[in-house]
Amino acid sequence: MRYSKTITGLTGGGSDGWDIYRKARRMQRDGTEVTMLTIGEHDIRTDAQILDALHRFAHAGHTGYTTFDGEPELKDRIATRLSERTGVPTTPANVLIVPGGQGGLFAAHHAICDPGDTALYIDPYYTTYPGTIRTVGAIPLAIEARPRHGFQPQPEDIARAADAAGNARSLLVNTPNNPTGVVYTRKTLEGIAEICTDKGLWLLSDEVYDTQVWNGDHLSPRALPGMAERTLVIGSMSKSHAMTGSRVGWVVGPEEAIAHMANLATHTTYGISGYIQHAAAFALDLGPAFEEQIAEPFRRRRDLVMAQMEGQNAARPIPADGAMYVMVDIRSTGLSGEAFADGLLDRHHVAVMPGESFGQAAAGHVRVALTVADDLLVAAVARLVELAAELAAQHAEPAQ
């Protein structure tokens, strides 16, 4: 029997970037103790008071069908949150509730791209981006944000890619960025906004790490002049409230776009569980102080790792201004990120993600997730630095 080209082509015919992660999980199942620094999963569980709210709302009867585009109470909370934090007037009509940030990416691309359109995105990127674009039948086109520019995208590169494609419809950006931890500057975002306006592009802004900013401030491009009408913002409860398994996210954008995506929800998700939505509204009411509490361990661990890597050049951290990761440059070893990560796992039972899992711009790097207890993290990073120093010394030795 034949399968569709869409489903068989989601990964573009190559690896989906998760080989090291799967290998580490197999080692764990076989009884090997592995320090997992791979995925962005909090090492704490959802807070007890949110769990109590889930229980309370479930027992109150919120277990049936819900409004397909989201419960009014939750949409109102998110609209208020965005209005207060960005200064852009936002109403519930600008909000669609989706099953996590990934559901938002899926809905947004379906709203604005047709089969054959080119959808631009920045490399390094979260691993699902090109596959999500392919679900629409659109053509994913990566634009490299290079290490020499601090992984800040260059507007002229975006303009050239849009011109070369000829049928570019959208641009997807992510700040604070996964995997690099880079927070895009106002200058970068203003340049991106200018290109989107000039080229008639929709801008998709993945802002799921907006509460994890260690240096500077988070600026939503939707708040820039003239951008609210062409920007779709993706948000989520996963990172800000340690609710990854609850699968609650949102898309915020122009009313007409949200109305079209609401029709899509009717034909796909058929709504999100009511008791989970009510608990999410409860969680948002806990306010910024609670979100800072969830984010604080990653700020502390980021500082620990950056300090730990001072005074050596074999493993050079990229300044992480946000998110729960540190990207490390290991090009001094002469190895790819994939080869280095594989060796680190085999020799020291430490699992990190290769930079190549996130595109070619991050080749020769590895991503360290700050998602284990401080002592385990420090020990794992020490092994990473040790291996990098050993391999860099070998790589620098003159040929005999």
Automatic annotation (TrEMBL):
The keyword Transferase applies. Its EC number is 2.6.1.-. Keywords: Aminotransferase, Pyridoxal phosphate, Transferase. Residues 35-383 form the Aminotransferase class I/classII large domain. CDD domains: AAT_like. GO terms for molecular function: L-aspartate:2-oxoglutarate aminotransferase activity; pyridoxal phosphate binding. It holds the Pfam family Aminotran_1_2. It catalyses: L-aspartate + 2-oxoglutarate = oxaloacetate + L-glutamate. The keyword Transferase applies. GO terms for biological process: amino acid metabolic process. Its cofactor is pyridoxal 5'-phosphate. Belongs to the class-I pyridoxal-phosphate-dependent aminotransferase family. This is Aminotransferase. It comes from Roseovarius nubinhibens (strain ATCC BAA-591 / DSM 15170 / ISM).
